């Protein structure tokens, strides 16, 4: 998965028509209903991002588990070059206006 892509959970073996509650570390991360064959698919939405492996538990009369690896990345300096150029043009503009 790439950052921003949707995460979903798919499972089978539930009691048909049962609600499926997905949790991870005690937080609710998804909800669905099992179809007539006992299968489900639903979006998984974490309320907080913490680096590491997280177990997602789907409880629907039986307990199904799966792991999700969250990776936190950072960017350094992405806008600093743009800021320097912007400040340069602002200062140059002030100089031109002040000293015609």
From TrEMBL:
This is Bacterial Ig domain-containing protein. Keywords: Membrane, Transmembrane, Transmembrane helix. The lineage of its organism: Bacteria, Bacillati, Actinomycetota, Actinomycetes, Pseudonocardiales. The chain crosses the membrane at residues 81-99.
């Amino acid at each position: 998965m790439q950052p921003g892509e949707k995460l979903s959970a798919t499972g089978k073996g539930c009691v048909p028509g049962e609600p499926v509650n997905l949790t991870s570390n005690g937080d609710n991360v998804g909800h669905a209903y099992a179809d007539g064959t006992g299968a489900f698919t639903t979006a998984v939405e974490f309320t907080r991002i913490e680096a590491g492996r997280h177990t997602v538990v789907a409880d629907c009369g039986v307990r199904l588990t799966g792991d999700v690896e969250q990776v936190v990345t950072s960017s350094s300096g992405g806008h600093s070059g743009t800021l320097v150029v912007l400040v340069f043009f602002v200062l140059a503009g002030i100089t031109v206006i002040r000293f015609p």
